[in-house]
Amino acid sequence: LTQQEIIALCDLEKDFPKVINLVDKLDLEELILMIDRCSVFIAQDSGPLHIAMAVKTPAVALFATNEWRKIFSGIRRGDTHVVISCNPIYSPYKLGGVQNRYLKKDQSQPLDSIPISKIVVEVEAFLTKRN
After folding, report:
1. Strand ranges for 57-116 from DSSP E
2. Are 82 and 122 in contact (CB under 8 A)?
3. Angle at Cα 48 formed by Cα 44 and Cα 51, nearest 5°?
4. DSSP 3-state assignment of 109?
5. Quick one: three-class SS letters along 1-65?
6. Which residues lie closer than 8 Å to 61 by C-beta, 6 or more apart?
7. For the whole model, what pTM was predicted?
8. Which pLDDT band, with edges at 50, 70 and 90, does 44 fall under?
9. Angle in degrees, CA 53, 123, 105, rounded to 5
């Protein structure tokens, strides 16, 4: 982590006292056990996200592109997960006279373009369903 990222994490911890920062503090077995105990897990496309889905911990998956479609076979919402992706950048093309679109692979958007409010709505939905 960069110094700037560490400062940002410390600021977040002050604003959200129930959030636990375990970055670089757990081995794999501990990580799996901790994720299994989470009420909701939020992560970008990463190993820990896939662990959360494997142990059926409610997960909000953040993607910078539409690559999530390959992983989730087009399923956007499941009982234990929801996918939020940035607004994709498309380029038009024609196939058999029909106008189509494809994602420009080299033009993903940063995850910080996902509105926090969108993530909060999904987390609250999982927490409400749980209670």
Report:
1. 59-63, 81-85, 90-95, 98-103
2. yes
3. 125
4. coil
5. CCHHHHHHHHHHHHHCCCCCCCCCCCCHHHHHHHHHHCCCEEEECCHHHHHHHHCCCCEEEEECC
6. 43, 44, 45, 49, 53, 68, 81, 82, 83, 84
7. 0.65
8. confident
9. 60
